[in-house]
Amino acid sequence: MSPAWQILLSHPFLTRLDAIGWTVLATLIGLFFAAVGVIGARVWLAWREHPLATAFRTAFVQIDTLADFAALVNRPEATCHPFGRIAAAACAAWTTSERRAPLHRSEWLYRALQTQLEREVAEREWGLTLLATAANTAPYIGLFGTVWSIYHALTAIAISGEASLTAVAGPVGEALIMTAIGLAVAIPAAIAHNLFVRHNRLVIPELEAFAHECYLLLTAENEENAPRTP
């Protein structure tokens, strides 16, 4: 074990922890790293998807035929963001319905778009439950650890017979570290959760509008190619 770890583990706060105290501390540390992992993963995905989605939507505005739409969907980067996946689902459903349900192509397309939208919405909810759990429970877990540590410290002081202010203030002050750790876990998790929820409220209507645009593009193409009665 390195000297740094030896110094850290020899801290009076850690040496006074019992099994319950270590369990509370390990739970808070686990919640912290889990929240940091979720935040980092979501930020990285947003950073990677944003330029691809922007370029895809710019190209989508310029197309007006099914052939151009299929060419756009078949690009390698098309499935790396939700707009591309929605377009790919629409194109696949439209092509498949031509063989399976030629008289109900619009309904087939609508169901495929609705299913893909639900998948994208569910994917955008990833990690939010964990962040909400960390934000709501970490302060209480830290408070429980503080209360337990204070009880443990006061019991040890009562057994030793030392009731001076110096003997009481040290263990009680160190016990408050648990509350501080709980707040350090909860505050970033709460801020990140609110920001991600706000971002989803802005993006999900855009996905719904884009799915509607795909529906109109494909159904309009079908109406133009439909045979005319004399």
Describe this structure in words.
The radius of gyration is 28 Å and the shape is rod-shaped. The chain is built from 9 helices and no strands. The longest helix is centred in the last third of the chain and has 49 residues, at 177-225. 84% of the residues lie in helices and 0% in strands. With 230 residues, it is mainly α. Helix 5 (82-100) packs antiparallel against helix 6 (105-124).
Write the layout of secondary structure elements.
Layout: H1 3-9, H2 12-15, H3 19-61, H4 66-73, H5 82-100, H6 105-124, H7 128-160, H8 165-175, H9 177-225
Helix pairs in contact: 3-7, 3-9, 5-6, 5-9, 6-9, 7-8, 7-9
Structure in a nutshell:
By secondary structure, the chain is mostly helical. The chain has 9 helices and no strands.
How many helices? 9
Q: Structural class of the secondary structure composition?
A: mainly alpha
- What percentage of amino acids are in beta strands? under 5%
Specify the overall morphology.
rod-shaped
- Provide mean pLDDT, rounded: 82
- Unreliable sequence segments: 224-230
Task: Please write the string of helix (H) and strand (E) elements.
Answer: HHHHHHHHH
Descriptive tags:
disordered C terminus, 9 helices, 0% strand, 230 residues, mainly alpha, 84% helix
